[in-house]
Amino acid sequence: MTKPSELQSLVGTEVGVSRWIEVDQARIDAFARITEDEQFIHVDPERARATPFGGTIAHGFLTLSLASTMSYDAVAPLEGVVMGVNYGFDKLRFLAPVPAGSRVRGRFRLLSAEEKAEGRWLLKHELTVEIEGSDKPALIAEWLGMQMIGAGIAS
Biggest alpha carbon distance in the chain? Predict the structure, then answer.
């Protein structure tokens, strides 16, 4: 647990790294079905082998959607937090494809922490999603989240 009074001292520092998460073909196929994005580079290994990727790759949005579980692994919750909500992104870049069968993890650095109202903290994290064995990350994002502490949700 992180105390709200400690947040400013954490700005600019790495606050956590998640576990490795496997992005296998079954996960990619399930994401394709649920999002109705069944482009062949994601779901057809034979056709995808003929592309510059050399095989199927995860959807960028699949990789991004793993950010929540990565955050649960890596970022200590605020003391007294009742809930957190996704507030959006200031910046998001997909830098490298994630080949099927790869493992990814999230690295989090706190960029800012602002109390918007009593008990409502807007936190901005830099999220870098690394691909195991690759020098280039899958994505980098500036992710905003609103953390609500105790009575702050009733305000």
Answer: 56
CA angle, residues 113, 119, 69, in degrees to nearest 5:
60
Helix locations, 51-118, DSSP H: 60-65, 67-74
Structure tokens that stand for 151 in this block:
């009575």
Q: How many beta carbons lie within 10 A of that of residue 72, not counting itself?
A: 11
* Amino acid, res. 66: L
* Burial of 80 per CB tally in 10 Å (0-12, 13-18, 19+): middle
Measured on CA atoms in the order 76, 82, 86, 91, is the torsion positive or negative?
Answer: negative
Per-residue pLDDT reduced to its tens digit, 47-66: 999 999 999 999 999 999 99
Look up residue 138 and give its DSSP letter: S
Which segments within the chain are labelled E, that is strand? 14-17, 21-23, 81-94, 102-117, 120-131, 139-149
Taking the model in full, what pTM does it have? 0.92
